[in-house]
Amino acid sequence: MPQLNPNPWFFIMMISWLTYSMIIQPKLLSHISMNSPSNKIQTAPTTSPWTWPWT
User: Which of 23, 29, 34, 35 has the most other CB atoms within 10 Å of its CB?
Assistant: First the structure.
């Protein structure tokens, strides 16, 4: 069962993980979000019941 041999796959997984954590992740985290959260107080929407014409 050659798929159980971790020799080549462990190395590939470690290189992929290191590439993500050292190169890609800092680049993604450096972007500033354009939609900053606002300090508005959230109010519940007021709804009115629907008047059905057949009732």
Answer: 23
